Amino acid sequence: MAYDNLLLHWWKRNQSINESPPLPLSRIAGCEFGILNSFLALLILRVIYEYYRDRRLPPGPRRLPLIGNIHQVPQVLPWRTFHQWSKKYIRAVVEESLRWRSIVPGGVPHAARKDDTYMSYHIPKGATTVPLHWSMSLDEQHFDNPLEFRPERWLAGPDDDRFTNFFGYGRRICPRRHIARNSLFILVARVLWGFEVRPPTGPDGQPKTVDLHLYPHQRRLKQSLSRAVRMLAGL
């Protein structure tokens, strides 16, 4: 199953206007998976906005989200409940981003250390197995409407059987997975800290769907950094 992605639009655009690509396709194809999730985190902030819209922030200074204070709760009492809620929801957004568009759809190949049987199929020792992260991430048995981006599914409660190994497992697990998760968390948190992100409004007055086209856009990025700039200037 194919999905909308930056690399596809980039390639079609160069083909349609008969331009020579500035870099061979092979040079950028490998990096697309890693960058895409960070970029998606920006695009899907409109989903977060729907929840933040009805939770007006109380007045007063806000702390700049840092790796070191992800797990800290501010001492200012009016912020405590909101901070606890937002931390959980941003984590859910990160998990849903990793699930919704897998970093490595085909997974990393593994080798069977001994003869095994799976669903009546015999797997001989030494055989190469490829875990399809794409298939497991979109399993309808564990993810209702899997093609829909819905962070709330990670707040409903634990499901021990659903796929969560987005960075692999075993000896081939990504050694920097914790850095990646924290980086995505900080990316989302800092954009929300400094900006109010809204999708453009369509002719019918309803929000328009955000896509991945590499063209000029009309997304509304309302800057709200005046207080933040003063805070940073004092650091």
Automatic annotation (TrEMBL):
Pfam families per record: p450
Instruction: List UniProt keywords, sorted A-Z.
Output: Heme, Iron, Metal-binding, Monooxygenase, Oxidoreductase
Binding locations of heme = 174
What GO MF annotations does this protein's record show?
heme binding; iron ion binding; monooxygenase activity; oxidoreductase activity, acting on paired donors, with incorporation or reduction of molecular oxygen
Please give the cofactor(s) recorded in the UniProt entry for this protein: heme
Q: Which family does the record claim for this protein? A: Belongs to the cytochrome P450 family.
PANTHER family under this entry? P450, PUTATIVE (EUROFUNG)-RELATED, P450, PUTATIVE (EUROFUNG)-RELATED-RELATED
Annotated protein name in UniProt: Daf-9 isoform A
| Organism the protein comes from | Aspergillus flavus
